[in-house]
Amino acid sequence: MARIDKTKSSSLTERGKSPKIDHSKKILLEQTIQEKIIMPGMIVRFAYNSPKVYDRRPLLFVFQNTGQLLHGINLNYLNESLVQKFFKLTQAIVPAMEESKAKLKENYFRIQLSDKRRPSPVGGQLLYNTVMPRDRRFKESYRTYSLSKSTSMKCINYDFDIFKQTHGKQSPESVEKKYVAPLEQIYGKDGKK
């Protein structure tokens, strides 16, 4: 469960800002990445050094990397159920897959948005136009960050519920229900027809 940083919550709600949510328990893997390798659909975390910035360690779902700016949703401004809702809506349009195109030490999860290295029919702009209007909090969490003020860039493997449902481990009971029971009906418990 995500924790809320309550240190500044009263002053934030007065100014209309959302409190920061700590999603560190949902991070499966964190590995260093160069800014030029960041692709749309990745989730990155970095240190952001700019005055008057509330979140100095954004957890960003990247819509676009222009080489100078990163555009995306700062997941730290969404509670866990909204993060999962965002990924469920996103997954309905474009799949999330484990890949190694960025040549990192470990494979990473990425929503398969179009990029010059990996073209696809769905780009960041189409995803933005389709998913963002579904919840006002998505738009409120949209941010643009200057890469010149960003350091310690990390690629994140996030624990998507939707990804676990299609690719995750299954319990022995669910395997038995799905595979063994129907086979027993056909072949009997002894395995003979």
Topology readout:
Layout: E1 3-4, H1 9-15, E2 21-22, E3 27-32, E4 43-48, E5 59-65, E6 69-74, H2 80-93, E7 96-99, E8 108-111, H3 124-131, H4 136-140, E9 142-146, E10 150-158, H5 161-167, H6 172-187
Antiparallel strand pairs: 1-2, 3-10, 4-5, 4-10, 5-6, 6-9, 7-8
Keywords:
193 residues, alpha+beta, 6 helices, 10 strands, disordered N terminus
3D structure, described in words:
The protein has helices at 9-15, 80-93, 124-131, 136-140, 161-167, 172-187, and strands at residues 3-4, 21-22, 27-32, 43-48, 59-65, 69-74, 96-99, 108-111, 142-146, 150-158. With 193 residues, it is an alpha+beta fold. It has 2 domains: 3-159, no CATH class; 168-193, no CATH class. It has a 6-stranded antiparallel β-sheet with strand order 3-10-4-5-6-9. A hairpin with an 8-residue loop joins strand 7 and strand 8. The model is unreliable at 1-15 and 166-176 (pLDDT under 50).
